[in-house]
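Practice problem 4.
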């Protein structure tokens, strides 16, 4: 949980601010997962801070939701070119990829469970979080 919280602070995901009038702040929660190997032994534990995006209202909190995907024919064409030209093929994984994407709309979130704060302060999100309706659409590939 400390690593996830450090990543959120490092990417300047939010600022504490007073909730403006006529605005609402969604809740959040920690989600825990145990990653296992093929033999079912524990590989490591994962934790993500999830915004409760199911409370977002269409037209008010967001206009569109979609996820960027590659056309299969593009991927197949790339693989053919790599094979014919004998190029090495690599892949990479970007850790905390959602946390690096800017949010285009104003999103306010209640402070984390156990987070000490003054009573009327909320998080103003600068970057996407898991669980937001627009997190996938803000992902830049």
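Answer key:
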């Amino acid at each position: 949980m400390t690593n996830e919280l450090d990543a959120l602070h490092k990417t300047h995901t939010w600022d504490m601010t007073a909730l403006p009038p006529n605005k609402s702040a969604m809740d959040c929660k920690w989600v825990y997962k145990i990653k296992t190997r093929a033999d079912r032994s524990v590989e490591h534990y994962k934790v993500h801070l999830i915004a409760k995006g199911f409370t977002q209202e269409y037209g008010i909190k967001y206009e569109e939701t979609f996820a960027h995907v590659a056309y299969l024919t593009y991927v197949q064409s790339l693989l053919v070119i790599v094979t014919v030209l004998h190029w090495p093929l690599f892949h990479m994984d970007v850790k905390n990829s959602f946390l690096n994407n800017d949010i285009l709309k104003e999103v306010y979130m209640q402070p984390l469970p156990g987070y000490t704060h003054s009573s009327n302060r909320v998080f103003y999100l600068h970057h996407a979080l898991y669980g937001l309706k627009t997190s996938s659409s803000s992902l830049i590939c």
